[in-house]
């Protein structure tokens, strides 16, 4: 797996660039749904980055963390959407 | 050899689409178009990146007899299924909440969702609640 290290670093740096662009959108977003869209995108990219990191170091525990992070971020996104909608809980 | 080429190809396609998602988030003029860029491109790119990780696990399992590789492949596939199930539902919820909270699409001429009567939905909600209460009382 050692020959894959540099390749994985390139992939992770590209994903970091994407996260930085989403963070800029979260900061300058004119409305609240813009910021929620940015946070949702950051969540998905963080999941992918965790899986690539686990494959780079050949550790399975990072991928388990990624599964739990995916489900929790889904629940938090639904909760924020319900709050914006003004519905009853 | 062929495995390596397919892995590099999948990683390249996935990174390309993820970076396109970030550029689209910065450049598009509206909440709904940003939602297109931020959800669809990210889902498509993550399919390819996690697919390449699955191929790496299967390769190390098949050629090196490493049981850690099979666990890597199966858990990555489960994470991919979780992303595929949860990402479109979240995008739909955000779009619905944005429309209900009053954000209009930029350069839109007609808005067909707004012409629907809102009172019918409220009446249905109250009716269902009353029927539920009656059922509980019975």
3D structure, described in words:
The complex is a heterodimer of chains A (89) and B (138). Chain A is mainly α. Chain A has three helices and no strands. In chain A, helix 1 (5-28) runs antiparallel to helix 2 (32-56) and helix 2 runs antiparallel to helix 3. The model of chain A has no long low-confidence stretch (mean pLDDT 87). Chain B has one domain (2-109). The longest helix of chain B is centred in the middle third of the chain and has 34 residues, at 31-64. Chain B has helices spanning 2-27, 31-64, 67-100, 119-137. Chain B is mainly alpha-helical and 138 residues long. In chain B, helix 1 (2-27) runs antiparallel to helix 2 and helix 2 (31-64) runs antiparallel to helix 3 (67-100). Chain B is built from four helices and no strands. The interface between A and B is large, with 49 and 48 residues.
* Major β-sheet profile of chain A: none
Q: Give the H and E element order of chain B.
A: HHHH
Q: Can you summarize the main beta sheet of chain B?
A: none
Could you say how many structural domains of chain B there are in total? Answer: 1
Class by SSE composition of chain A: mainly alpha
In the residues of chain A, how many domains can be counted? 1
- Helical segment tally of chain B? 4
Q: What radius of gyration of chain B results from the CA coordinates?
A: 23 Å
Distance between the termini of chain B: 70 Å
- What overall geometry of chain A do the principal axes of the alpha carbons give? flat
Give the strand tally of chain B: 0
> Count of DSSP E strands of chain A?
0
CATH fold-level label of chain A: Helix Hairpins
**Largest interface: pair, residues per side:** A-B, 49 and 48 residues
> Oligomeric state of the chains?
heterodimer
How would the global form of chain B be characterised?
elongated
| Binned strand content of chain A | under 5%
């Amino acid at each position: 797996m050692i020959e894959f290290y540099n390749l994985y670093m390139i992939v992770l740096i590209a994903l970091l660039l994407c996260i930085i662009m989403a963070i800029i959108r979260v900061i300058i977003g004119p409305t609240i749904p813009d910021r929620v869209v940015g946070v949702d995108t950051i969540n998905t990219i963080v999941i992918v980055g965790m899986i690539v990191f686990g494959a780079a170091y050949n550790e399975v525990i990072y991928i388990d963390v990624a599964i739990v992070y995916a489900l929790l971020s889904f629940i938090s996104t639904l909760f924020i959407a319900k709050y914006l909608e003004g519905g009853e809980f | 050899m062929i495995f390596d080429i397919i892995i590099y190809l999948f990683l390249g396609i996935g990174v390309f689409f993820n970076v396109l998602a970030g550029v689209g988030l910065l450049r598009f003029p509206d909440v709904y178009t940003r939602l297109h860029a931020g959800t669809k491109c990210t889902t498509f790119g993550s399919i390819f990146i996690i697919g390449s990780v699955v191929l790496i696990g299967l390769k190390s399992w098949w050629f090196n007899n490493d049981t850690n590789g099979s666990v890597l492949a199966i858990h990555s596939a489960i994470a991919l299924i979780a992303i595929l199930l949860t990402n479109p539902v979240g995008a739909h919820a955000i779009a619905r909440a944005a429309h209900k909270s009053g954000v209009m699409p930029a350069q839109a001429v007609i808005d067909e969702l707004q012409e629907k009567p809102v009172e019918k939905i409220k009446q249905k909600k109250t009716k269902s609640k009353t029927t539920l209460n009656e059922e509980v009382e019975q």
